[in-house]
Amino acid sequence: MKSKIIILITVASILIISSFGIYNYLDIMFKSKKEGLTNSLSVQITRTRLKLKKNKIQKYNFYNTNLILKKFTSNRLKSTGPRSYLNYYNQNLFLITGTGILMFAPLNKIKTEKFYFKIINTNFNDLVGEDYINSERSVVKNLLIKNNKIYVSYIKKTNNECFTNSILVSNLNFKKIIFNEFFNINECQPFFDQQVGGNLSDYKDNKILMTIGDYLSYERQHNNNPQNMKSLIGKMISIDEKTKEYKILSLGHRNAQGLYYDKDNNIIYFTEHGPQGGDEINVNIFPEKGIKNYGWAISSYGEHYGFPPKDEKLYEIAPLNKSHSKYGFIEPIKYFTPAIAPTQIIKTEKFIKIANKNIIYIGALGGDVDEGDLSVHQFVLDSDLKIEQHNIIAVNDRVRDMIYIEELNKIFLFLESSGSIGVLEVDN
To answer: To the nearest whole number, what is the mean pLDDT of the chain?
Structure first.
């Protein structure tokens, strides 16, 4: 009798699940987990379905070109956010959440109204620590796939008072990813902080780029590590994929979250978060020709948090002078005061074609659309990389990351407020 009851209950459960649909059921299961996606749940979830949200199609016009922004939503992505990151490799769109959940969508599955992400099982939770992941929620900082290897930048916790920028690596496998440590800056910081950079980008000669933030070292540790060549804090480095040897390309960085390498012209584009204003768009032209200095925390167009009144001792260490060039530093091509919280930066002349012009796009977080927050910013640059035009695409969502896929001629955005994938495309 007992076994019959169990069978009846099982059958009834299956029927209920079927009536909802398997994806809805999995969404319900996920929402019931207060701490987010766990190892046990990740085994049960195999796919994430994104649907085009009704009445979420926005239209724009630039240079006589009509653009459409579509938003594809998923309850699961909203729940696992924030701070998810995108990458594209071998006709697959990849996404990793701040909690280390890795998934991919083949281009042939990206349809007009919906597309699917498939989950890839990894050892990320076991390697990084599930309790740590669930407590901080945004330990992952970026994702890069190159030469059939997958790199994940994250904040490593070695003990209760030690956090450090690190990179994991694995051969790309769509069934199971086994990460191992690839690189660690080996500089202990006594607190978890989001001002850590951690962006990754492809680079030349079998190297990758990495940005490293300053952890407020000037304030918390009474020094200015971003200007100290003996420290990797506040630096941009290249790392050899085979030897793991690194080279400092630039210093004086606060929190470079946007990073793009233009291999055709040998230029690094990147964005910086400033304090209370002073966000920047910067370029490093011919990066191998000397180590460039971008000024932090000696020069900045922002101000230290909580001041005025000025803390004289703090400003002695980090004066935040309102000029870069006057003190021998590289001026940004654009700075924002008030801040817009810039994130990823990409460059493409193919999305919208304007002869003899460089076109870059940056994402913005913030909270005030009227000040350029929650938007995609488009900049048209002349041959000297001076800004000729600046257009704003008001997305009304925090633009955490974006990537251009040439095969589709579309820009994909991760919109973390709504847990959506935005698709910016030309209206043909």
So the answer is: 84
Sequence ranges of the domains in the chain: 33-426
Q: 143 with 151: CB under 8 angstroms?
A: yes
- Rounded to two decimals, the pTM is 0.87
Q: How far is it, in rounded angstroms, from Cα 10 to Cα 4?
A: 10
Q: What are phi and psi of 24, to 5 degrees?
A: -65, -40
Per-residue confidence at 129, pLDDT binned at 50, 70, 90?
Answer: very high
| Inter-helix orientation angle 22-31/2-20, to 10° | 100
In this predicted structure, which of 36-40, 116-120, 197-201 has the lowest mean pLDDT?
36-40
The Cα-based distances of 51 to 193, 198, 309 in angstroms read 34, 31, 50
Average of per-residue pLDDT across 106-110: 88
Instruction: Specify the CATH architecture of the domain 33-426.
Output: 6 Propeller (2.120)
